[in-house]
Structure formats: C-alpha cells, structure tokens
Amino acid sequence: MNSFTGIRFKKDTAKRFQNFSRQHFKSHTEALETMLDFFQDNEISPKEKLGPSAKTLETKLLKRINAVIAIMRDMEKSQTKPTLAMLESLFQAENQPHKPSKPTLIVEKIIKEKNKNN
Asked: Confidence class of residue 88 from pLDDT cuts 50, 70 and 90?
C-alpha cells in the first residue's frame, strides 16, 4: 500500500482543490497527478496564459463576420444593383417592338436599277 504524506496549504486553497477534485476525479491524488501530467506533457507552466479564451475568439470572429457582411452589402449597393439595372434596361429596350423596314433583296435592287436605266 502506498504511504501518504502531508502538504500544508492555505485553508481556502485546500477547499477549492477538494471541491474541484470531487467533481472531476475519484481521489485527490488522481486529481493532482493528472494536473501535474498535463503541465509536464504539454510543456507549459501554470503561470502562462494559454491564449485567448473561447469567448474572446467568438467575439473577434463575430466582428469579422459583421465586417464581411458590411463589405458584401456595399458591393451589392455599388456594383451588383447598378449592373443589374443596366442589364434590365438593355433587355427592356430589346423587348420594345420596333417596326423593321422591309429588307430589300439584292435581286430587287438590281431589277430597280435596270428599270431606272431603261
């Protein structure tokens, strides 16, 4: 059987650790070993910051998404809608009925020219 040793902690810190340990692990020893293994395996110090939190990343991502939406709306207003309006006006002009003049055939032109000369 393993022997135990006593370590002195402040009362508040010991309570926090006991509560944490009970929530996540079967024993206090397992909790402490897991924490030590985590820091050693990942080669990080408990005093280091791991970077931005999920909330911070979410906020930054939402800001970037809003910026992209603003850019797309601006493109729609300044480029897409005017281009669409120009294309629609071209198609409307194309659809308007106009009376084409009757095409004259080359043969008819030759006959008319001969009749004028005669």
From this structure: confident
In 3D space, the residue among 85, 82, 101 whose CA is nearest the CA of residue 93 turns out to be 85
Domain that includes residue 24, residue range: 9-49
Tokens coding 67: 């910026």
User: Nearest CA to 28 among 44, 47, 9?
Assistant: 9
Which of helix, strand or coil describes residue 30? helix
CA count, 13 A, side-chain hemisphere, 26: 1
pTM equals 0.41
* 42 and 55 together in one domain: no
Q: Where are the beta strands (DSSP E) in the chain?
A: none
Q: Which residues contact 73 (CB under 8 A, 6 or more apart)?
A: none
Please indicate, yes or no, whether residues 61 and 34 belong to a single structural domain of this protein. no
